[in-house]
Amino acid sequence: MTxxxxxxxxxxxxxxxxxxxxxxxxxxxxxxxxxxDASWKLSSITWSIFPNNTWIATCRDQKxxxxxxxxxxxxxxxxxxxxxxxxxxxxxEDDMVYTVDLTNTDKQYSVNKMKVTVRxxxxxxxISSYLSKDEHCSWxxxxxxxxxxxxxxxxxxxxTGTFSNMTTSNGxxxxxxAFLQNTTNLVEITCTSRRKAEKASRVVTLMCYAEEPQPxxxxxxxxxxxxxxxxxxxxxxxxxxSLTVSGLYIAMCVRRKRNI
Length: 260
Hints:
By secondary structure, the chain is of the alpha+beta class. The protein folds into two domains: 2-119, Immunoglobulin-like (Sandwich), CATH 2.60.40; 126-208, Immunoglobulin-like. It is built from two helices and 16 strands. The protein has helices at residues 2-15, 222-259, and strands at residues 20-25, 30-32, 42-49, 54-60, 63-65, 76-78, 85-87, 97-104, 109-119, 126-133, 137-144, 151-155, 162-167, 173-180, 183-195, 198-208.
């Protein structure tokens, strides 16, 4: 029995090809090619993980089982013709080495290994904007990314105004100073984050405008306005005094009746 196991392990080591690699994004799916000979008619397919060869998907005697391990339940699809395995809804734990053992109807064997790399999609960069309003319209823009190993750059920078573009040395932060003319036109500037073939962008909208003049009073109107306020105060004072006198008179009458 021990000899048989050693022979099987030796056979696996001899037949295993160089490690192939495939990558996918979190939440997406990825297909692991079995690398089976196109002329083969497969009679047995076994996909496994870990050094102890834990089976996760098998097909034997035309019976397929892809529900062997809880973490992969309802997430595996096995192509019984090619031996390819598809993993749905990728998680960080799916990042590992997978092994496939193949047997054809002529009792020929093949062992292949596949390294799956699970990556996060490139996130949109974050833009912070600060406005300094004086005689000019001065903007300071900063674009940064939470991802590593990215390059940030500004696009769609308008021709009007003065711009100073600077990307910091660490590669995941970019600054842009903008001095725009006062205008009611909207200015849209894009910051793009790139990592190899991936890219993600975010747009910021800027607008500068001249301050509206504050309303001023016509000097010729001021005297008449003051006269109106004086008349209102005078009438109020007269009414107040009349009410006070009336109140005193009523009080005196009440006292006289009590004394009679």
